[in-house]
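Notes from the 1:1 (GR / supervisor)

We went over the backlog. Supervisor wanted to see one worked example end to end before approving the batch request, so GR pasted a single chain during the call. The sequence is below; no edits were made to it. Supervisor asked that the structure be written out right there so they could see what the output format looks like.
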Amino acid sequence: MRTATALAAAVWAGAVAALPTQTRSTTLPSSWKWVSTGPLVFPKNDERNIAGIKDPTAVLINGTYHVFASTAKSEGYNMVYFNFTDFAEANNAPFYYLDQAPLGYGYRAAPQVFYFEPHKLWYLVYQNGNAAYSTNPDINDPSKWTAPEVFYPNGMPKIIADNIGNGYWVDMWVVCDDEEDPNKALCHLFSSDDNGHLYRSQTTLAQFPRGMSEPEIVLQDTQNIYALWEAACIYRIKGAEGTQKYLLLVEAIGQEGHRYFRSWTSDRIDGQWIPLADTEANPWAGEANVVFEGQKWTKSISHGEVIRTLTDQTLTLDLSEPIQFLYQGVDPNAQTEYNALPWRLGLITQVL
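Structure output shown during the call:
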């Protein structure tokens, strides 16, 4: 079996050979194709007794992949950090459990990492019953992640409490405008409620992380809450204009219970989101458009993140190479409570 990096290289080489020039369009396709590795990262056989590793966020810096993820077991969640230079060696990377840092013990899950240029700090955004964050001047030193602070000091905003029903407030995501004026640029905080709603708050770049507004509902589906479930990601597309300047991904649950991602585009982070590939039959990524190198080990392309090489708060994707998405998958035959499911991490690479 080829390694994930060899697979990605082969896919990219084939794609480039098929193009008339060496540059790619910044136009996002209306249908997508992907190839997946097998499971690449498993829980360690250690005293932590982790059942699943999930919700990865990843950046690539000077040849090193930095990954943060949730650790899950029946007793609850926390987070872990590890790094590696080749996906073939990803499972051998030592885990640093983030409860060893000032970030601390207790419920912390679903991380998102980015570099906030104005502060010269790395931010780790996550859920802890609120929308929380920690900071670190050096992504290479996980011991420096600070104790949690929250975006909403008064707790769950009223609009979420009024609409959450039997759901859960989950999967916080921050993305900022590319305006140069810090008093005009906005930073946006998205979250989901597992009840068919996607929310957005905002503050200015100059005030961030303080001053988040009351959330508003960006998208909703109250007829089929599973079609707008959780794990929203928003990215700026480098060089794109008009309604394809931003890409929104949201995880959905299909008719047989398997996870997939829908997609939308917009000219503004706070603008109208236009469907792109947004059905189970034509997803952004899901069982319908992912083929596997070797055995098909999962039917779910679930909570994950594009591997970013541009790491600042604008979350910009450079489409000069195929998109790679680190995701969580699970054996479809696994039968256990949700927190104890054996989630593993895999990698899909866009086929052009």
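Supervisor's comment: The helical segments are 4-18, 158-163.
Batch request approved.
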